[in-house]
Amino acid sequence: MANIDVRLLRYFIAVAETGHMTRAAERLGIGQPPLSQQIRVLETQLGVTLFERLPRGMALTDAGQAFLADAYEVVRKLDQAVDDVRRVAAGVKGRLSVGFTSSAALHPFVPTVIRAFRADAPSVSLMLDEASTSELLDSLRDGQLDVAFIRQPQGDTGQITFVPVLEEPMVLAAPSAHPLALTGRAGKAVVPMTAIAAEKLILYRRRTGQGLYDAIIAACHGAGFSPNIEQEAPRLLTTLSLVAAGLGVSVVPASLMRMQVEGIVYRPLAPPPRAPLYCAYREGVLAGPTARLLDHVHVAARSVAPE
């Protein structure tokens, strides 16, 4: 069976279903003599007679009847395999592993893209993972992840393509009773960067969020001071918890203002540090579900208003 051309199986099925060589040839779009020849080739390869030749048609022998069920199954499985591989190539079947940093996941852009992709390709098995930027990039290189949303490229980026998606301002997060939080109406009063020079600063740990950390430090130096770093928290939400507890202030992406943490007031900064967002994937790996997700990334990026 392994050496039998699948076309012979299709020819056999057509003759079996029509019970007539000429009608089967018309269905297949080939001549009757070549079809008769191919049926004889199949019988020779199998070493059995599949059809009884009648004056007005073709009738399956017992061997042909037994072979028909298997022929159907082989053709069905082959057609299914062809359909599956085409669907994987089109990005609507298969699996996709997507990683993100905690700060990236908190921006509405990321869940918007994931929702759009899920609606577009519901048959794709989608795996999501949260980790630090360095861990995500390592997983991309190792093939454990297909796509990652990060804040800033870092380390050896030679094997990875980075697509800039958006850039958002960063804001001050202060305890609600803090003097910087009590000036003006909530979210309206602009705080100059120099105003936080003497404040105890709580930052997202650099090892976990190098992009945000470096952007904040650079903004402080640009404003003419070195920050007074009180603590470095392992996670961004932990940073907000420490601020709410009154242990200091922090600088976070503006998208975190959607996190209504009790005891925290957000204030715009001037000039604001900028927090970019990138979509990363391995170089040369842009096909199937990965390519389809990137299509949604590009569509969503075009719809993002300048922030």
Automatic annotation (TrEMBL):
The keyword Protein transport does not apply. InterPro entries: LysR_HTH_N, LysR_subst-bd, WH-like_DNA-bd_sf, WH_DNA-bd_sf. Residues 4-61 form the HTH lysR-type domain. It comes from the Bacteria. Keywords: DNA-binding, Transcription, Transcription regulation. Pfam families: HTH_1, LysR_substrate. GO terms for molecular function: DNA binding; DNA-binding transcription factor activity. The keyword Amino-acid biosynthesis does not apply. GO terms for cellular component: protein-DNA complex. Signal peptide: none annotated. PANTHER family: SMALL NEUTRAL PROTEASE REGULATORY PROTEIN, TRANSCRIPTIONAL DUAL REGULATOR HCAR-RELATED. Belongs to the LysR transcriptional regulatory family. This is Hca operon transcriptional activator.
